[in-house]
Each structure stands twice: as C-alpha cells, then as structure tokens.
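Friendly challenge for the regulars: who can give me the structure tokens for this chain first? No prize, just bragging rights.
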Amino acid sequence: MYTPAYAKNENEEDLKDFIRKNGFGIVVSTVDGKLWATHIPLILVGGKLQGHISRGNKQWRALPQNEEVMVIFLGPHTYVSSSWYDHENVPSWDYVAVHVYGKAHMQSEEELIESLRQLTNKYEKDSVHPVSIDTMSEKFLHAELRGTIGFEITIERMEASYKLSQNRDEKNHTQIISELEKRGDENSVSVANEMRKYGCHK
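First reply, four minutes later:
Bragging rights claimed.
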C-alpha cells in the first residue's frame, strides 16, 4: 500500500501488538480469477494468523491456491479539519492500518478446535458468564464444525501506515490532538492518543 515516509512503521512488535488489539480483519484473495474479501476475526499465533470461514463461503477452497493472500487490519481513523491549522491547507484523514501478506494453509479439525478455543477465550475473558469450547457438548461442537473450515496464514511480510499528522509542526500537531479530544467520539480520542504516542517529525 502507498504510505508516505513519515507514516511508515516497520517495528514488527508494534505491528503484532496492533493486530492483537484489532483482530477483526479482511482476508483478500482471488476466487475464480476475481478479488474476494471476507470479514472475520483472526488471532496471531507466533508468526501465523489463524481463522475460520463458513463452508458455504467458496473463498476457502481457493485460499491455498493463491500464491499470496492479503489481510487488512484497520485501527482508529478520523477526519481532520484544516480549520484547526494556523495556515491555509486542505482537510485530511488520520488512521492506522496494517496489511499482512502470506501463504494460506487449511487446518486439521484438531487445529481448528484449538484455534477456536484461543479465539473464544480471548474475547470471552471479560464476560460475566464466559462461553468455552471446553464446556460445549461433543455432539454440539462437532455439528458446528461441519459447517466451519479452519485456516492459517504464514506471515511473509507486513506493511503499516500510521498516518497521524506527523508531518505537522508541534503547534499544529498539538492543536489537532486538542480538537480531536473535544470531538470526543471513540475514533477521534483513539487517534489523539496514537498521535501523542508517535509525536510529530517537524
């Protein structure tokens, strides 16, 4: 993806941490010669992304046939008004996004169950009455598995764009943060927090 030099982030640990916190991704591949995208939760296990897909979604058959699969993870993003600057300029959009590229392989049923266990435990940890793969009846679980295909993507490379107004001077950078915090919605506040973390380069 196109990323201006000031917005590049090549810190692998930063990107992996981002994926862990923003695990709902878009898996992009080709199916019958055309682009196909599926929105699904994924977990990062070592150097691999693991997920599952409905058997009714024909993308799963084509995944291992693709030389390369792309997964898009999007973090906070928000509109930046040029009325906040102390000079004439155009509006912009700040965002954080990570693209992962790799080769897909299908999982065995045992691998799928373990992947589902980890995914469920991750998102159920704050539930009052957490659901667990381990407490589901074997009959129910295997009935559900009949309609589910597990896969994993071995990560070969990652690209990231942390476009957070780093190209503004300190005065305007600080003003953008202030205006985003005044706006108060979750995306604006999250972008403001990321801007503080990464600072400006002017």
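The two ends are 24 Å apart (CA to CA). The mean pLDDT is 95. Your move, everyone else.
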